[in-house]
Amino acid sequence: MSDKNERLPIKVVFSRKQDKTKNTGGGQTKFFGEVTPELRKSLSDKFVSLNKYYSKNFKEFPEVPCVGKIKIKNKAIAKSHKPNKIFNPDTCPIIGSNTFDEIFIKLTKTGIDTVISEMKNNSTEKFKSNLTVIDNILPYTSEDIFSEFSKEEMYKQINSGRPVKLKLFNFDNQQDNKNSHQNFYRLLEKYNLIDNLEEISFSDLFKTFKVNNCDKNSLDNIAGFSALKTISPIRTINTAPIKSYSVKSIDPSEYKKPGKSEYPVIGVVDSGIKADHPLLEPWIYARESFVPEEYQNNQHGTFVAGLIQYGDIFNNFKNRSNQKFKFLDVVVIPNDDPQYGKVDHLTEDQFIEIMNEVVPKYSNEVKIWNLSLGSSIMCKNDEISDLAVFLDELSDKYEVKFILSSGNYNTPPFRSWPPVKDLGENDRITSPADSIRSLTVGSIAHKDSDNSIVKKHEPSPFSRRGPGANYVIKPEVVDYGGNLDSEWSCNNLGVFSLGEDCSIFENIGTSFSTPLVTNTYAAINNSLDNQDLLTSKALLIHSARLSNSVKINKDEENKYYGFGHPNILPADILSCRNDKVTLIFNELIKKGEHLELYDFPYPESLLRNNKWYGEIYMTLAYDPPLDPNFGQEYCRVNINASLGTYKEINENGELKFDYSGEVPLEKNWDSKYEKERIQNGFKWSPIKSYYRKIPRGIKNQDWKLRVDFLNRNENNTAKQRFVLVITIIDPEGADIYTDVVNQLRQNAFTFNNLKLKQQVRQRY
């Protein structure tokens, strides 16, 4: 008889030719109002007004397009009815968007004239339908340019000597962009600022510049440039720890040193790991320092590295990997404590320059990077932050994964739990925690006391919340980062790690929950025979849902918890049991088709008294193409999965299928967001979680798995990879693993064991 707790291999299942089905035709043309002569005149008059508004720009910069804003009716948002029959390459094409109900169009004198003529005369059904989508037509004004910081606030910034960040529109046309950049340089020359201009490589998809020594008059004139998108200050990057406490000294001889084995390398981008540290120096793979020694304070970086390597030992954490790592120590954050020594700061442009140097240099050896740092830039609903865009593009270019802290809310009084103080947006995650490609980590408490602000397993009082831009769940996961008492002290409530000497210190922060997740994620990835960052991400988040170590009771709460706490041994994440079977689908899906498995192998042993039972977890992960020019529509592809039951129906001699999805999408955003915004936001999230427990049974019908692929309106991606992890559990503990494997064989599926470096026992 087999052991119930015996570890069995996860099965990787491949779709068959018959599982790939072509999509059928689209829907009918939809109207959102009546097309009347009055509507045509009203809309065309707005373009006449735009022509007048930009007459000075067209005269001063005749080669540079201007930008208009099209407001979309709320009821048209969910259907993605972009008015691209009106705004196309022959008129005023769509070049981006901001919120879901606002798009940007490129304006030229010729384009405006053509639109006015078309609005008066074009009577095709699709064109008329587009007319009914439009709610308003507006110019792009200085309020938009100064949306992050008002003009008056920017005056204060430049008066204090801070540099200015200027971002230009991308017109999606090589010649237009060239003209825009050349005219921009001439404008800067006119105000004697060209020598103070530096380009910042945030993205290949838009141009950003840093300007030093800009005065009020120059700023006002630059703000009138036709192609200017935003003006904002250059921000600083920091670690922002709260005061730490010394606990005890330790004996380095009691801790393991590297053997002859090869160890995976983790990049630690921080304040630096203390050189010659007895416990950590033997694990240094390489060191890249960008901070002069007299400005270094290695406390934070040493604490972070100590948690990656010894966090389980110092804190007696259970269900942790015993995997050891080597470190690429990247010293970027200078000391900011005058009592410690000389102080300095790191600006976002300096950070970008450093990362553009070290990531390519080590990208073959270092695939996972811990960034327990952040900024004061609050993430917004309508736009991904520049730093997040930069990390996303760096991730794609060099095939690496960044693990980011969600940021600390450091302003007393701190949030309690459940949240009773309305903080508004003040405890929202900070940039670059909104990075889509990265894993963002929040903090929960692992200790409490009679006077602690929160209890064990509740979100730490300082941990910031999501969502990210376009309502994507951020943070994705949480781990232990400490607690505070009513006196705002972390004494006996924090996490333990290494100080600069051989002492254990106590501290708190999302900076310190992040390295614990880095350890788990790296252990999962390193366990795979063919290391794969996307599969590892899917498995990590899947394990957070399976662990059930935190209870998410209300819609508001998952803004802090994300998908949960991955508190499961990596060996258990990467295996099955008799009563718990996990399948992985690692597939490419093409435009114009969907996957449909009509004989999904749901365990027949879960059919009892003619009803299906069981508990089902599904995690879907994919890396969609991204475009920062489209704001809330940054993610350009949507993948959705559905698992349910169906029955065949003969309708007038035609065979049809009556399908019912049985495993719902977990989308617990609160009700203050309009329905269409949730549908168009969370729906496009590149990580989705589905769950269903069936205690009362559902009727006996066959099971089907379906996966759909959808492009954004202006996007034309031909194919998209996804990873879907499905776990089915029998709460009564019966052997369902054998059942599923037998069905896979009977239905002619091709499947393999998930290949691990240390393979679990193979029974089938």
Automatic annotation (TrEMBL):
SUPFAM superfamilies: Subtilisin-like (SSF52743). GO terms for biological process: proteolysis. CDD domains: Peptidases_S8_Subtilisin_like_2. Residues 264-564 form the Peptidase S8/S53 domain. GO terms for molecular function: serine-type endopeptidase activity. The keyword Hydrolase applies. The active site is at residues 270, 300, 511. Keywords: Hydrolase, Protease, Serine protease. The keyword Transmembrane does not apply. It comes from Halanaerobium saccharolyticum. Belongs to the peptidase S8 family. This is Subtilase family protein. Pfam families: Peptidase_S8.
